[in-house]
Amino acid sequence: MAMEKKSPLHLMVLTALFGAMIFAVTAYILHIPTPATGGYIHLGDALVYLAASMLPWPNAVAAAAIGEALSDALTGSVVYALPTLVIKSAMALCFTSAGARILTKRNALACIPAGLICVAGYYLTEAFLLHSFIAPVAEIPGNVVQASASAAVYLLFGRAFDRAKMKARLQSL
Q1: Is residue 16 in some structural domain?
Q2: What is the mean pLDDT of the chain?
Q3: How far apart are CA 153 and CA 164, in angstroms?
Q4: CA nearest 125: which of 115, 112, 139?
């Protein structure tokens, strides 16, 4: 049975679970502050990619936006919450939940535009906040590391989850 045919309550629960996992990983697991801008490096984007590969796009966008923005709001980076909501939503839209597998060729390649959206989105956010197009350049390497590490974790977990047929198991709940 396709995920889109599940009851609204089933999708709401899965969306909330993904949002909570995204929040927890972003806020507390390998959360590395970047003092220059008040932001931080994290691996929450890997869960954004997983959610976007398993849930219909509106639910994936909601989980990504709420989980990541809530993390900013509750970990001292509240100024980033609204931009994060927009950036992470756009990143989730790069992936598809169509098909029986998480790690399709399209989803593997989607890590590239999602990473570019992350780097460009936060560069523009910091340029606006700092009133400078020069100062945020210092944060680009950290954002590239975050995007690359999240892509690597997504690819590893996506492959493992596909071998364990996690998407089919999730859909059969």
Answers
A1: yes
A2: 92
A3: 16
A4: 139
Question: Angle 8-28/44-54 helices, nearest 10 degrees?
Answer: 160
CATH code, 10: 1.10.1760.20
Paired sense of beta strands 39-41 and 32-34, if any:
antiparallel
Which residue would you say has higher pLDDT here, 37 or 88?
Answer: 88
81 pLDDT higher than 80: yes
In sign, the C-alpha dihedral spanning 151, 156, 157, 158 is positive
Q: Provide the 3-class DSSP secondary structure of residue 40.
A: strand
**Cβ-based neighbour number of residue 103 at 10 Å:** 21
Query: Residue 4 has which token pair?
Result: 């889109």
> Within a domain: residue 35?
no
* 36-to-58, 65, 108, 121, 142 alpha-carbon distances in Å: 34, 24, 32, 17, 11
Per residue in 31-54, pLDDT (tens digit) is 888 776 667 889 999 999 999 999
Residue 140 has, within 13 A of its CA and on its CB side, a CA count of: 11
Q: Are the CB atoms for 3 and 54 separated by under 8 Å?
A: yes
Backbone phi, then psi, for 36, in 5-degree steps?
A: -60, -35
Q: 2: pLDDT confidence band, cut at 50, 70 and 90?
A: very low
119 is a domain residue: yes
Q: Both tokens of residue 29? A: 């697991």
